[in-house]
């Protein structure tokens, strides 16, 4: 990874840490029972973790993804708007698919679902506005990624799939993905164990899913995930003295 890329990512992370520390310092809530049970230092550490999770949300993840994509030689836009011209029959089929999945009447299968909607090519067409968190264009493909929390609820997941299917109905050559920036279940795809989105996607087998290392190596190239963890570790080493002062 280039030095300039590392520096840009480091700056984003440092900013997230600084904002988290400021929020914790401003919180003057007295917690005598928590501190008696856990110690003041542990209570402060817990407060910082919650605050950092707030700072390191959708925006920083998108921006780091964009930096890595550009460094990998591709074009990239955050919050990309697409006006999809979609066959009305395909739109109706997408609604039927989602209703059946949510109702447990069928199991998710991305390839089969895409084949169903792309069979509709006659009749009226309607326009649907879609916002993709990340749009990437390289020499081979035009790619659309929806980035969500690693433990999305079923409504969020349904919206993601609807947008992805609409894009595929608009242009079969589009590549569409559901991206989760880390895997809460473990290091491997098969470790993913958050049940809510599994009604809508086959989280362990659908090729349109990118989780953890798969996601970061996809946007930034092979080895990106490991390099990114090292940057996080370095920022952590540099800011640890600031964190230790919170609990005193």
Q: What's this entry about, in short?
A:
By secondary structure, the chain is α/β, with parallel strands linked by helices. It contains 9 helices and 5 strands; from the N terminus they run H-H-H-H-E-H-H-E-E-H-E-E-H-H. The model has no long low-confidence stretch (mean pLDDT 92).
| Strand line-up across the major sheet | 1-2-3-4-5
Q: How much is the radius of gyration in Å?
A: 21 Å
Number of strands: 5
Task: Figure out the total of helices.
Answer: 9
Low-pLDDT regions = none
pLDDT average, as an integer?
Answer: 92
Task: Name the shape in a single word.
Answer: globular
Structural class: alpha/beta
Largest sheet: 5 strands, mixed
Q: Work out the helicity level.
A: 40-55%
N-to-C series of helices and strands: HHHHEHHEEHEEHH
Give the DSSP E fraction (strand runs of 2 or more residues).
Answer: 15-25%
Taking the alpha carbons of the first and last residues, their distance comes to 37 Å
């Amino acid at each position: 990874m280039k030095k300039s890329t590392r520096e840009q990512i480091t700056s984003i992370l440092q900013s997230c840490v600084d904002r988290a520390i400021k929020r914790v310092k401003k919180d003057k809530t007295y917690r005598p029972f928590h501190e008696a049970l856990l110690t003041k230092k542990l209570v402060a550490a817990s407060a910082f973790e919650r605050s950092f999770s707030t700072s390191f949300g959708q925006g920083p993840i998108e921006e780091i993804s964009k930096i890595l994509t550009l460094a990998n030689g591709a074009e990239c836009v955050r919050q990309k708007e697409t006006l999809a011209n979609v066959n009305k029959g395909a739109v109706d089929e997408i609604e039927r698919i989602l209703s059946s999945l949510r109702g447990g009447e069928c199991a998710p299968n991305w390839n089969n679902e895409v084949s169903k909607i792309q069979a509709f090519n006659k009749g009226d067409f309607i326009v649907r506005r879609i916002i993709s968190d990340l749009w990437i264009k390289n020499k081979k493909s035009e790619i659309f990624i929806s980035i969500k929390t690693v433990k999305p609820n079923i409504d969020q997941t349904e919206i993601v799939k609807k947008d992805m299917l609409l894009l595929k109905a608009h242009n079969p050559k589009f590549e569409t993905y559901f991206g989760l920036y880390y895997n809460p279940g473990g290091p491997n795809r098969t470790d993913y164990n958050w049940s809510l989105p599994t009604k809508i996607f086959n989280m362990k087998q659908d090729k349109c899913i990118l989780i953890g290392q798969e996601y970061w190596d996809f946007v930034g190239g092979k080895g990106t995930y490991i390099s990114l963890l090292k940057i996080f570790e370095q920022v952590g080493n540099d800011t640890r003295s600031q964190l230790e002062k919170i609990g005193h």
